[in-house]
Structure formats: structure tokens, C-alpha cells
Amino acid sequence: MPSIVPAFGWLEGLAWTTALRESPFGYPLIETSHVACIVVFAGLVIMMDLRLVGLAFTQAPLAQIQRRLFPWQMGSFVPSMATGILLFCVDPLRYYRNVLFLAKLVFLVLAGLNALAFHLKTYRRVEGWDEDTQVTAIARLAGGASLLLWSLIIVSSRLIPNNWFK
Amino acid sequence: MLLPFFEWCDGLAISQAYRDSTYLFPVTQALHLLAVTIFVGAIVIGDLRMLGWGPLGQSRASITRSAGSILLWAGLAVLLTGIPQFTTNALTYHRSWLFVFKMYVLAAALLFTVTVRQRVAGADEGRLPSWVPKAVGAVSLALWMGVTISGRLITYYG
Asked: Residue A69 and residue B48: Cβ atoms within 8 Å?
């Protein structure tokens, strides 16, 4: 099976990734933007999850909260993804070998699948969520899973620089 | 002027324990970021509502009340995880202009939140001119994002 390491080595050696890595402002500003965007995105996802599990904003209809927060969630998710990809491109060989980075990616995929399943299977099939403040058990479960996964994503993100499991 | 206080923080047993441990400081940092995320989420949902872009089905006062308990618990967690990080690196922070800047913005954000924002969010919907909650929401967002961004930049330029 061909190794992906040479491709990451090539990426790391490009002029623009080298310039960003060596710049006193490039990496810090991209990383700070990444953290700011992910804090807003995950923060709003967690608010939605708290609504789903019935711990907050219980007087607001779920569909309306979801509809009104969605543009802001996407508006912070897209730049957080873009800056995250940039951060990876700047130092791909370091991230590729980092177990905590790989764990973060797994949690991200699981959170994405959970959100997708919730929207396609649960959310679209439930009528009356525009007015109803009650939430079904399966929706509460999806909210709980999302809460756990986003907590793990944030924690693993912050632990990446430590690379304990070499 | 505050150097003796920073030196006292640096010399605390908990600061030494954090410096001696491989895991304690990074795990506390990670939990701090999680608490900050939840705190910012609760601030942003309230500010968006004041700006007229959040969930309109619930009143400003109701959203703020609901977010209030989240803010309280997440704020406590931010404080509990932030203090040992501060005491462990107190002498470094003493020389950091970004840390001082973050503390000023944090003080302004806290003061604004518990006074102006709290009062405007709790006011009856029609009582204030529509630009007032919008301005308060915008200032609150700017202040809390200022705290978050300056806190992160300390790592690089502190």
C-alpha cells in the first residue's frame, strides 16, 4: 500500500506552507482564528444540544432555535474548517503522527454522522416541532451524543500540542 | 506594584504541583477551553437574540434567564480552571502585556454583562428603542470575543 508520508512531506515543503510556518504571525493568527471560530460554532451547537436534552431554552420551539442558529453555526463552522485545514497543511507530518489529532478527527466524523442522522431521520420526520416544545427520546439521545462528542473534540483539540502517545 | 502578589501565587504548593506534573496543566487547559466554549455559546445565543438574529420565539428576558444558569456554571468552571493556570505561570504573566490587556477586557466584559446587558435583556420588549438591545448585543459580542482572542494570543505573544 503506498504511503501518504511523501505527499505530506511535499505539502510541508511548499513555499507557502514554509512561509506560514516560519512567519511570526502566520501560524499564530490562523490558530487563534481557528480557536475563535470553533468556540463560537461548538458553543452554539452545545446550546442546541442543551435544548435537545431539555436542560435549557425549553420554552422555545426546537425548530425555531435550530432555524435561527443554523446560519451562525455555518458562518463559524466554514472558517473554522478552512483555518483547520490550513493549520494541517502548515505542519502535516506533525499532525499525521499525533494520536490526539487523529482522535479529534474521529470524534469530528462521529459528530458529523450524528448530526446528519438527526437531520435526515429524526428532525424531518417529526411534525409540529415548529410549535411544540416537547422533544422525543431519540432527539434527546442525539443531543446527548452531540454534547459528549463536542466536549471530546474541544478537549482533544487543546491536548494536541502535548502529543503524549508517540 | 503587584509583583509580591504574583510571586506569592508562583510559590503556592498548587503551582509547584502543576509545574511538576506532566498531565495536570494540559488537562486543566483543555477543561478551561471546554468551559470557555460553553460560556461563549451562552453569551452568543443571548447576544444574537438581542441583535434580532437569534431565536425570536422566546423573549429576550426568557433567553437570558435560561442562558443565565449556563453562564453561572460555565463561568465557575472557567474560573476554577483558570486560577491554577494563572498561579503556575504568575511570573510570566506579570511581564505579559497581553495578559494585562485580557484582564482589562475581561473586567469590562464582566461589568458590562452584569449591569447594562442584564438590565437591557430583562427589560420589556417594547420599552426600549430597538437600537438599544442591538447595540448592547454588539458590544457584548465584541467584548467577549476580545477576551477569547486575547487569551489565545497570550500563548504566542505574551
From this structure: yes
